[in-house]
């Protein structure tokens, strides 16, 4: 295996020390770069297997700038850094490093970080390649589907979703032959695998545009020149009026965008492109752009049979069979459509068909078991058993016989031969809940199952081959357990091939109203009562509560309240005393700001920055790039007073 490592570190002593440690452990150091420029040269020349990357370097560019290139080229890297401020750390995190070592670190920390990075990179790469091949096939298959334009776009969106995390997509075609005219269609993600199609006319109604404003907006719109992403979208007034992009950001609260233009089929012919938007500010990174570039030929194939009015080809009559809803059905009982939860759905649908081990983390009651069930249900093993084991509930002296089984007479009291849970799960999935509570001795045996795919019954003469997929879950911090010697490092990184973290309920409060509705319906239905929901006041208090027990706690409270309810509406749910959180004034999901409010807020913000100055070089009008008189009339229209106190 190529073990060439590139060190990017501007401190000579530290770089030298690193080189010695690496060589001692059998690695080859293929170069030491002090700046990003040197690192770029060495990357090109030496093709390192892995890069150890300091953040602050000689020269203008930082390690974070270089990381973007590494990600694009799929070269794993580990940051080496002294304690940095939060902003730097967040920027570093957004490049998805394969490890992070805080200086000073011990030799052993370095070697372990290298092993983990290597292991994950190889496994990640392999499964990524497998998934990408699958994506390419799915895109190519869409070409021959007997479906209309909208339906094909929907299919394309569905197959791309696990790879490009978007909440809104615009598909457009511009045609030079039609005087630069653009035709477009938007899809808005409203749930897992659920999309709302928005026509330009529909968009105009939502954005409160008059027909001539919509025409002007589309005429101004140009196709992006290249694949690119931006993570800082915010509505800003433009001199020539709002842009399509600005309006989408404004009306639908989108914070980042990835543009993916497809190559023109013929010179001067129509250009089709996609703009993917996300509600998250840091949704897109170099690897999404790189993936976009790689799948462009397949996307082109998939979109070739789309007919757009602008290219003067009559639209096909849709003869469309809806796509399979099996994924939707699997996620049916998992309520919520917050970005955090839809991201979990995406991860589940990505990993389910592969046979990789999955580690689900999250606080108690966040739905880890539900997610494990979904993975199994969406996998090729769905017809086979899903065996659940709660490792915390098994007595230490029985855990091995429970998991691996025993032969008759293996120990006192073993009157019968017993088939262990692993064998029961043969050809299916085993769900090891609370894996963090597994005793160290059992962990060794589990490692053997993972490595050799075989178990040994207690008292057995020979190992037994098993074909199982392992899904593990824990509410513990496994990294901490490893550091404190309670969890084996080798087992940790074998299990942590595909981690899925479930957000706590407090992190996704916007899902609370949907969950409340769902549980009221379920429990009222069970006892045959007609209860329509909870009062506004009660819902407000539920949204402000901290939910230490997450969804399980919410479910139990609703069940009890349904039983105790006097009328058709639950007026009161007694919440355990914990300090209620200040509810944000309004969450994005509950109410979207209007363009009017956004423009007003933005102007006030700029005025505050300029201490109320309108004219002059540092005045608000210059920053907003509009004449002071226009700003004056805008302020009047938006009700912003000149003597606004800043
Ligand atoms: N998104 C959801 N929508 C509806 N019900 C949910 C959702 N997530 C979890 N639940 C319900 O909440 C309860 C707790 O879920 P689950 O047992 O999967 O949590 P867990 O994280 O495995 O908990 P623990 O760590 O305590 O084992 C279950 O009744 C489950 O059906």
TrEMBL record:
Residues 334-563 form the Sigma-54 factor interaction domain. The keyword Metal-binding does not apply. Residues 4-118 form the Response regulatory domain. Gene3D superfamilies: 1.10.8.60, 3.40.50.2300, Homeodomain-like, P-loop containing nucleotide triphosphate hydrolases. This is Uncharacterized protein. The keyword Oxidoreductase does not apply. The modification 4-aspartylphosphate is found at residue 54. Keywords: ATP-binding, DNA-binding, Nucleotide-binding, Phosphoprotein, Transcription, Transcription regulation.
């Amino acid at each position: 295996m190529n073990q060439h490592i590139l060190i990017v570190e501007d401190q000579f002593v530290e770089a030298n020390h690193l080189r010695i440690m690496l060589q001692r452990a059998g690695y080859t150091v293929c170069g030491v770069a002090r700046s990003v420029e040197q690192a770029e040269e060495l990357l090109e020349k030496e093709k390192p297997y892995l890069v150890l990357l300091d953040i602050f370097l000689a020269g203008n560019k930082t390690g974070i700038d270089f990381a973007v290139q590494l990600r694009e080229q799929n070269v794993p890297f580990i940051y080496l850094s002294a304690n940095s401020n939060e902003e730097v750390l967040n920027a570093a995190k957004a490049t998805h490093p394969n490890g992070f070592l805080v200086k000073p670190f011990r030799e052993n920390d370095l070697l372990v970080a290298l092993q983990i990075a290597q292991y994950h990179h190889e496994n990640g790469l392999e499964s990524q390649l497998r998934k990408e091949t699958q994506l390419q096939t799915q895109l190519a298959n869409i070409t021959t589907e007997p479906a209309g334009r909208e339906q094909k776009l929907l299919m394309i969106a569905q197959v791309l979703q696990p790879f490009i995390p978007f909440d809104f997509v615009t598909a457009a075609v511009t045609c030079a032959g039609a005087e630069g005219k653009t035709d477009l269609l938007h899809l808005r993600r409203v749930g897992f695998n659920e999309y709302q199609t928005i026509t330009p006319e529909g968009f105009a109604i939502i954005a409160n545009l008059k027909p001539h404003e919509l025409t002007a907006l589309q005429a101004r719109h140009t196709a992006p020149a290249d694949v690119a992403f931006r993570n800082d979208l915010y509505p800003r007034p433009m001199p020539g009026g709002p842009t399509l992009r600005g309006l989408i950001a404004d009306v639908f609260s989108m914070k980042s965008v990835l543009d993916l233009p497809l190559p023109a089929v013929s010179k001067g012919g129509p250009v089709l492109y996609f703009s993917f938007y996300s509600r998250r500010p840091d949704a897109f990174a170099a690897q999404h752009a790189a993936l976009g570039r790689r799948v462009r030929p397949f996307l082109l194939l998939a979109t070739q049979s789309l007919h757009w009015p602008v290219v003067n080809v009559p639209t096909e009559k849709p003869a469309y069979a809806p796509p399979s809803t099996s994924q939707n059905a699997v996620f049916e009982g998992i309520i919520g459509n917050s970005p955090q939860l839809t991201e979990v759905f995406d991860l589940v649908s990505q990993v389910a068909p592969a046979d990789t081990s999955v580690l689900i983390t999250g606080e108690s009651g966040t739905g880890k078991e539900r997610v494990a069930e979904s993975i199994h249900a969406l996998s090729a093993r769905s017809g086979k058993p899903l065996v659940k084991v709660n490792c915390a509930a098994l007595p230490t002296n029985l855990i091995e016989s429970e998991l691996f089984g025993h032969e008759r007479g293996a120990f006192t009291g073993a009157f019968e031969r017993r088939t262990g849970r692993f064998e029961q799960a043969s050809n299916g999935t085993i769900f090891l809940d609370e894996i963090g509570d597994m005793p160290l001795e059992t962990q060794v045996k589990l490692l053997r199952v993972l490595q050799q795919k075989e178990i040994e019954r207690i008292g057995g003469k020979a190992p037994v081959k098993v074909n199982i997929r392992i899904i593990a879950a824990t509410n513990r911090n496994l990294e901490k357990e490893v550091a404190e010697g309670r969890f084996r490092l080798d087992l940790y990184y074998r299990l942590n091939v595909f981690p899925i973290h479930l957000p706590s309920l407090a992190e996704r409060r916007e899902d609370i109203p949907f969950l409340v509705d769902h549980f009221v319906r379920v429990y009222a239905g069970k006892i045959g009562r007609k209860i329509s929901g909870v009062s506004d006041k009660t819902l407000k208090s539920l949204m402000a509560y901290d939910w230490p027990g997450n969804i399980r706690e919410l479910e139990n409270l609703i069940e009890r309240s349904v039983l105790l309810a006097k009328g058709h509406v639950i007026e009161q749910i007694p919440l355990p005393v914990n300090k209620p959180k200040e509810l944000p004034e309004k969450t994005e999901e509950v109410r979207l700001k209007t363009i009017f409010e956004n423009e007003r807020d933005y102007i006030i913000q700029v005025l505050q920055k300029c201490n109320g100055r309108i004219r002059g070089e540092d005045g608000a009008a210059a920053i907003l790039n509009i004449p002071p008189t226009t700003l004056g009339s805008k302020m009047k229209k938006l009700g912003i007073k000149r003597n606004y106190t800043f």
